[in-house]
Amino acid sequence: MTLSTQTTPSGFLLPSIHSAPPFFTEQPNPTTQAIATDHWIRLILTYARHRKLFSLKVEDAETSGNDWDEILKNERINRKMLPSHLSNILNAMVKKNVAVYEPPKQTHSVVLYWRTPEEWAEALHEWASSTGQLNTIMTYYDITDPPINSELTNIPILLLKKAIAVLTRLGKAQVIGIAEGEGVRFFAGLGNK
Amino acid sequence: MALRHCTKPIDGTIPVQALLYDDEELLTTQEGVGIYEGQQKSPEHQNGTVHISTHRLFYFDAQNELSHSFSLGLELIIRTDYYAGLFTSSPKVTLYLAPSGLESDNQGTETDLASESWECQVCAYRNPPGLSPTAARVCALCGVPQSSISTTERSILPLSKSLPSSSSAIPELTSPDSIACPACTYFNSPSSRSCEMCLTELPRQSNRLAMKSAPTSRPGSPLDDVHVMKLSFRKGGDKPFYAVLKRSLKGKIWEVGSGSSTHNTDAPSLGDSHLIRKSGISGVLHNVQSSAQGQDDNLKDALKDLEGLMAKAQDMVRLAAELNEKLTASSTTTTLPTNGVSSSSTIALTPSTEPEEATFIRSSLSQLGLQMTNTPVTLDMMKDERKWYEELARELAGVLQGRQGKEGTGIMKERGIIALDEVWGGWNRARGVALIPPSTFLLVIPLLPLYTNPTIQTRTLGSGLTVLHTPPYSQAAFSARLVGYLSLAGPRPTIDIAMEEEISVSLAKELVEAAESEGNICREDANTTLIGGGGVGGAQLKWWSNIFEGYAWDGQVS
């Protein structure tokens, strides 16, 4: 039985393993399951990057019609990911530091790090400088919902704060308390006062 | 004849059974017995038959059974001696007889007493004849002694006075022989054994004294009147006879049972006290005591049996040791020539079976635990145990694979894998006798690879099921075959694999899961079905060759 890759309506290239029914079954053998989990994590992160999805919930495996349908289900082979299986994969992702539970202290919803906070920080700084907003005080809302869509549109506040924190350490940003909450000011680079 | 004082003539023409009282029992009989009176032979009683009953000893003279036969109450016997006999002298039993206060006329009345029926004065019960005199002397219904007035003036007189129905208690109070009860100080009749007021047992010594002196005012010390009677066993049978006599004397049936005593003056008081005892608190206590005594006796008997058994066990161990030595000797002699003529197959067969039998006998003995007490045998047995297991392994190999020589059908001839319980059952069925216990079976199994071709190995599966298998069913071989099958035929459920391998589904499941845990295959659960389908509890598993192994990512990269 030969498996082939498949392209989803959203233009995502699914790996051939996604057409193999055992991929949707949790394997009792830990070695085998580790391989399967790795493939799942890669698939989820790649798809998240493709669709710019930031969060994944266990419920996504239970319901249909959400953003994750294309990978958590495979209608061609009539297979789906079971919630318990997805929960275990989320756990593995958190352990591998490619996701964090958000909100914290629960285990059925994560924010995906398809970019690390460092990568986000870079992207954020680039965006700020390219749009000429250095040295300007901005609210978080200005970043997550800019007038012109950017990479950072809809970025979770958690991820944004982490990216800002990275920039602050590098001296490229400064968090300022303002009346409506918190604001941020970006600087051009090192030594820029 | 002095013995006349003690014995009572009987009509020897009547069978002994007819002479017994209702409550008497015949114990043993011995022919060819002669009687000695003192140290002299009693000329009239030189050849006769002696019977022992629970109450009496009977002598039936062979020549003159009508006039020379007599009976003797066992209660008169104080002591017995046994003489085993020497050369022409026959074995003898000596009986030392207590003095008897009987006069010849008394004997007559007693015979009447025993054979007559009488009416109790208290309860008007008509007592039937046939009981022994002591039993007949008291009412069978109410236990009140038969009034002496109706018969003769005898020892029961003082006792009957103390009864409410009797005339007066005054002479008793003044009587010098009366016994004060230790509990209530009531002066009892000298013939009483227990207090009439509170049923406490009276002091025995004074009681005996009273018994001796009170009933008949016979002068003289009792010791002067000890008579000696000897029974000479001319035709043997002395030992069992003596044993029975001893037992009968020990039993004292005439005293503790429903007393029957032929001609003892103590008898009435004995009977009285016995019956009174039966009906009071002391009676209950007495019952408890006597039952405890009985239990004690039983226990002693049982312990004696055990000792006997232990003595026998020693013999058995010795026997086992001897047998073992003989076996060793014979096996060495048979093995020596075998080396010389090993080329001949027919001769080689015989010694090969003989050690097997010898080993079997030895191991049977050792399994009985007989080698434990004898150290050299233990060592020998240990050596042989190992040999025995080896022999068993060889036999089991034959059962499993068929004998090398003939075209037998072994259990594993057609099947490569088989559960241990089935092997055990099959083996024992094949043996038919001397079945192998599971413990031995488990000790034999590890030796199996040495005697099997192809090698049969043991394997314990995930569930704990232990199987015997041929090389094709080892983990590696099976996994390789399974992967080949799956990649050729595509994903398959367990049942298909079972059919392909011609093994049971549960066994296939075990093997497949073992292969899965090795990472050779992977599973697909029907519960992951998107629409419809779905099995219950993993029943719908399909097996795939491990698609994850060696898979290279071919999806979207960025």
UniProtKB/TrEMBL annotation, chain A:
Q: Which InterPro entries match?
A: ESCRT-II_cplx_Vps25-sub, ESCRT-II_cplx_Vps25-sub_N, WH-like_DNA-bd_sf, WH_DNA-bd_sf
| Family (UniProt) | Belongs to the VPS25 family.
Q: Please report a single Pfam family linked to this protein.
A: ESCRT-II
Q: Per its UniProt record, what PANTHER family does this chain match?
A: VACUOLAR PROTEIN SORTING-ASSOCIATED PROTEIN VPS25, VACUOLAR PROTEIN-SORTING-ASSOCIATED PROTEIN 25
BP GO annotations: protein transport to vacuole involved in ubiquitin-dependent protein catabolic process via the multivesicular body sorting pathway
Keyword vocabulary terms for this entry: Protein transport, Transport
Q: Which GO terms describe its cellular component?
A: ESCRT II complex
GO molecular function terms here? protein homodimerization activity; structural molecule activity
- Gene3D superfamilies for this protein: Winged helix' DNA-binding domain. Chain C. Domain 1, Winged helix-like DNA-binding domain superfamily/Winged helix DNA-binding domain
Give the protein's recorded name.
Answer: ESCRT-II complex subunit VPS25
TrEMBL record, chain B:
Q: Give the GLUE N-terminal domain ranges.
A: 10-261
Where is there biased composition of kind Polar residues? 344-353
For bias type Low complexity, the affected ranges are 330-343
- Main function: Component of the ESCRT-II complex (endosomal sorting complex required for transport II), which is required for multivesicular body (MVB) formation and sorting of endosomal cargo proteins into MVBs.
Q: GO biological process annotations for this chain's record? A: protein transport to vacuole involved in ubiquitin-dependent protein catabolic process via the multivesicular body sorting pathway
Could you tell me the superkingdom of the organism this chain comes from? Eukaryota
Q: Does the keyword Metal-binding apply?
A: yes
Q: How does it assemble?
A: Component of the endosomal sorting complex required for transport II (ESCRT-II).
Q: Name residues in a coiled coil.
A: 296-326
Gene Ontology CC entries for this record: ESCRT II complex; late endosome membrane
Q: What is this protein called?
A: Vacuolar protein-sorting-associated protein 36
Source organism of this protein record: Amanita thiersii Skay4041
- Where does it localize? Cytoplasm; Endosome
- SUPFAM superfamilies, sorted: PH domain-like, Ran binding protein zinc finger-like, Winged helix' DNA-binding domain
Region span, Disordered:
330-353
